[in-house]
Amino acid sequence: MTDVSATPAPSADTPDDPYLWLEEVEGTDALAWVAERNAEATEVLATSERFLRIEAEIREVLDSADKIPGVGLAGDHLYNLWKDAEHERGLWRRTTLEDYRTDDPTWDVLLDLDELSAADGVDWVFHGAQILRTGPLAYRRALVDLSRGGSDADETREFDLVTRTFVAPEVGGFHRPEAKGGMSWVDGDTVFVATADDAATTSGYPRRARLLRRGQELADATVVFEGEDTDLAVSAHHDRTEGFERDWVSRALTFWTDELFLLTDDGPEKIDVPDSAEAGAYREWLLVEPREDWTVTAGLPAGEESRTYPAGSLLAGDLDAYRAGSRDLAVLFAPTPTTALVGATWTRHHLVVNVLDDVKNRLEVLTPPATGAEGIVDGGAGGAARGRRVGPGEWRRRPFPAAPPLGTVSVASVDRAGDSLGGELADGLWMTSSDYLTPTTLSLVTLAADGADAGSVVASEPLKAGPEFFESAGLVSEQHFAVSADGTRVPYFVVRPEDLATDGGAPTLLYAYGGFEISLTPGYSGGLGRAWLNRGGVYVVANIRGGGEYGPTWHQAALKENRPRAYEDLAAVAADLVARGITSPEHLGVQGGSNGGLLAGNMLATYPELFGAVVIQVPLLDMRRYHLLLAGASWMAEYGNPEDPAEWEFIQRFSPYHLVRRDRTYPPVLLTTSTRDDRVHPGHARKFAALLRELGHEVLSYENVEGGHGGASTNAQAAMMGALAYEFLWSRLA
């Protein structure tokens, strides 16, 4: 294992960057260079029979008519965006729940994105739609977000669900021109809008939110909140829950700190929680998730002078009581050394919490105390409300059906507002379940609203099951733990042939992310199964620090100056795979995208002896200038500020663009990015490829002309980009 401290670090007085011209996203010279690199990569990788077979296999998965159509309920309809070979940009469509239950639902097409793209001469990517649910125009109008080529910047247009046409601004239709930001309904004639075109932060996101009325110019709309240039972003939204209608503003100060405001007649009222905590309200309840230990010394029961709520916990209390000064909160979840909260979903009457225990799911249904005219009351043994106030901790708990041993279960509310299908699914949940070897299933689960069985599952209806896209017989998945440089146990999953010979000869793909408190859990991938597993490859996912698998402390352990811990963790997993005889360095590849691209770049620069190939996708790599490029300034809370000499001192030690050397031996590299990525600048990948070429190292790079940060906008593009990576790995590792 390479000693990070022994790696020569560049001076903070970095010479002028010779490849700055490659940061001109659509510069003539830059695009000509990109075209040359694309042609080279295509010639080397995209002409073999294996590449063509892999591309076709992935495309068949993506275009399959048997894949599960994901849906959301609004009114009497389920809405879905569908892509296949005939509709590469997609159909926005709807059906009924009754029809969806059948094997062949009848779909009502609302918007054909391919037709719209042809008519407008723009490669539109559907970014979602918000359907109006109140007033005379309820379920007749929607706000549709459209992105040019898949970029984060998009525009919003009002859409008529009856006529299947956009409502032109000239006749009063709402429209937000292309920019980073968003628009959301307040009522049929009013929206909240925040757009970077109006006022932008240094990160390129909106810093001002307005209340816009139909027919009004944006400049004339009421400003409901304005942040500072140095904030990350500002947004506003309306909670339409009957009896609890409220307007909220979220002010993101950094990626990990924000403020929540309730809009009142007297102006914005800040909800007084720590800036590092996440807070939100539903009906009468306030939920708080502190990222750091939080000690309160006021608003507690008599005789209690202070209380500390642990980082990573989930807290609940009455919102109005909290606003009045109470800090007596129920601890709904408290982390342990092996557990972390990864989600909490409200239905009308219950809260479903999703916990990881050593990266394995466990769900629980929590039912809050009832609220009546006398306040929080308990029905007692006889079931009748007696007006007795109960403590904030007296929430009822019920276990949820067990998750697969090495799989993932997630739930989402169907209709917590109770304003669709007559409210029959107000306590309904969409439940998805899968693992590495089992196709995803979608079920409709209904919880008992109240009574002695409140929170129990009264119905669980399997709705859809994905097809088996690859042969899983003879494959096994398992979990192991490696020991990192500082003694930390790091979990990882392995998917391999059951009869794998432990002679170190198996082509193995190691994937990780390690940032932004994002957890990697098992899931089914037909493309991976066909392109890699069914060809004899081993697949490994590492749950390294920087992620959220063990809560905020696991994430914070790899922040800023501690970022190299994530890389030490991944190096430990790589070494453990070799020690187990699963693979050897010449047969081990590493892959990562975005922050994971920075991870893969660091594995190349710092641990090259551990790998036989490296795939780096839509990456950050130049950490000297990342904060100056597109949304980069928004990530300084994660990585640090290069303008601060003290912080550049540690940042430069994980900046791959400044670490690679001519006189070191590196495994071959494939870099991919997108011209339309307006989140992580394509200049990172371009400049790193150019530098590696100059230093005489083996590198290929390919830049998709569209796709945004996802790297691809259509199934055809996704299949091609995936096949490039798999062909590169097979050609180097087999």
Automatic annotation (TrEMBL):
Domain Peptidase S9 prolyl oligopeptidase catalytic: 532-730
Transcription as UniProt keyword: no
Membrane-traversing stretches: none
GO biological process: proteolysis
Keywords recorded for this protein, A-Z: Hydrolase, Protease, Serine protease
Residue ranges of every copy of the Peptidase S9A N-terminal domain listed in the record: 13-235
Gene3D superfamilies linked to this entry: alpha/beta hydrolase, Prolyl oligopeptidase, N-terminal domain
Entry's Gene Ontology molecular function annotations: oligopeptidase activity; serine-type endopeptidase activity
Region (Disordered) residue spans: 374-402
Top-level taxon in the UniProt lineage: Bacteria
GO CC, one annotated term: cytosol
Protein name as catalogued: Prolyl oligopeptidase
Species: Salana multivorans
